[in-house]
Amino acid sequence: MAIRTLVWGENVHEQKNKVVADIYPEGMHTQIAKLLSKDSNIVARTATLQEPEHGCSVEALANTDVLVWWGHAAHGQVADDIVERVAERVWQGMGLIVLHSGHFSKIFKRVMGSPCALHWREAGERERLWVVNPGHPIARGLPAYFELENEEMYGEPFSVPEPLETVFVSWFQGGEVFRSGLTYRRGAGNVFYFRPGHETYPTYHDDRVGLVLRNAVNWAYNPESHPELLDAPNTPVDEAIEKIEERGPKLHHGREEGFR
To answer: What pLDDT is stored for residue 76 in this prediction?
Structure first.
């Protein structure tokens, strides 16, 4: 069964900046979807900030196995209820891939529970991405390192939780380094952050970046959904696995729901 992948882009820079529009005439989200569609195992569609419910309706997310997120200028315009809806789907098992400046997106900060801050410089400098975990599925088919001639610099410290795995580390011409490929698990959902992707450079036309993204979608895919992870049921005493006697005072009775 094909991996149903939704590529979300805020679609703002493409409408306002000629440089970005010239590089991505159909929008960054469309180009990312084209990269993903080179894998016959992936069926990619797109959504943007400007659509009703930002293209992330209950139905749309229910039909999404992996969500790819790119945002920058309009993080604050993403509605909080949509962010919570996406987070719940991640906890249930939907994969999430966050790209570049999406580190400051509401959804990434929500699932990370941290500031997700860093320092940066926009100077079109060379980025060398080292594969520090060559056995990882996301690194499959890549050389020991690859370079992007022009990129925005991101530098450590990156205030995110300690990852499950670090797949890539970047070096920049100015001397900074950055953990540029990190994996996490949140609930039943696999999460991957990938650093490259500044909008004024043709990063999403690079074949090696495309390979990383396709590998990441396949890695993030979870064929099972676990909606029960959002519940907190009250198990009555008489339904305990082992027979027990009720002792001491209590706040709740029967199947009364807990406080949230």
So the answer is: 97
